[in-house]
Amino acid sequence: MLVGVTTARRRRARGVAVFLTLAAVLVVAVLVLRPVLREPGPRPAFQMPVACGETWQLGTYPGHDDYDVDFFPLDGASWGRPVLASFGGTVTVAGINGTLGERTPSNPDGPRGTGGGYWVKIDHGGKWETQYLHLLEPPLVREGQRVERGQQLGRLGSTGNSGAPHLHYEQRRGWEKVEAYFGGAPSGITTDDREYTVHRTSRNC
Questions:
Q1: What's the average model confidence in pLDDT over 179-194?
Q2: Residue 42 maps to a domain
Q3: 11 and 73 share a domain?
Q4: Which of 25, 72, 112, 200 is the most exposed place for a label (fewest CB within 10 A)?
Q5: pLDDT: which is higher, 100 or 29
Q6: What range does the domain containing 3 cover?
């Protein structure tokens, strides 16, 4: 009789333990998935990632991927131009994407690298983020740092898989690329089914 009671108690204890474990897993799943499933917030008031008042060429080409924007200055030297935060946020990546290659101002035709070279990614909250690739040198910001709109992130270069000094730029909503907007207006760079360019003037003041 005592053996039967002990066995029943053990079964009940195991049942309680399993229930508590499942409840804990459910709580963790809710905590993890809730921010992932939440709808993105409103689009931040992004500005162009270059100096106020400057007019730049924005372009794309076949195979560049939809909504990817390449920035080229229309006047003056390209190498070393300041790359600025489009909006305030927290730096989540500041490092190297792929390999750097050897293209520099003194060796502009050196071997290409792979990927984005020196780059920065910023979380703007509400599941919005921006990315800045092919910087000339290590970023001027670090992971976890809070930055403000217009703060310099680095300098324009040609690291990674880049044929000439330029800034590769992306805006992402819910971690999916979308058409970049600047000052509330669409950039005009959408599909990559053809090569085309537009001119836009920065209001990142």
A1: 97
A2: no
A3: no
A4: 25
A5: 100
A6: 1-37
